[in-house]
Design goal:
The chain contains two helices and five strands; from the N terminus they run βββαββα. The protein has about 90 residues and is an alpha+beta fold. The protein has a single domain, classed as Conserved Hypothetical Protein Mth637, Chain: A, CATH 3.30.1200. Strands 2-3-1-5-4 form a five-stranded mixed sheet, covered by helices on one side. Strand 4 and strand 5 form a beta hairpin. The longest helix is centred in the middle third of the chain and has 14 residues, at about 35-50. It is globular. It starts with a strand and ends with a helix. About 15% of the residues are buried.
């Protein structure tokens, strides 16, 4: 499970570090009609090299603070976070 802090409405989707124990992610999508949530799932799946079905939003549909379930080996997620300089 990954805790995420989302900031919608950015120019591009990118990780900007940690915020209050959660991965902070700027999103190139508005917080309207679930577009930001869709962007989170699509971006994480692409970044981790996983199909979208392996990334699920568990909590925080309307909140900036979200919990994400990633169906991948923990080593894969840890390596990805390490590549971001966050593991």
């Amino acid at each position: 499970m990954l805790d995420l802090s989302a900031v919608p409405g950015a120019k591009r989707t990118e990780v900007v570090g940690l915020h209050d124990g959660a991965l902070r992610l700027r999103l190139a999508a508005p917080p309207v009609d679930g577009k930001a949530n869709d962007e989170i799932v699509a971006w994480l799946a692409q970044s981790l090299g996983l199909p979208r079905r392996d990334v699920q939003l568990l909590r925080g549909l309307t909140s900036r603070r979200k919990q994400i379930q990633i169906d991948a080996p923990e080593a894969v997620v840890a390596a990805w976070l390490g590549g971001l300089g966050l593991a």
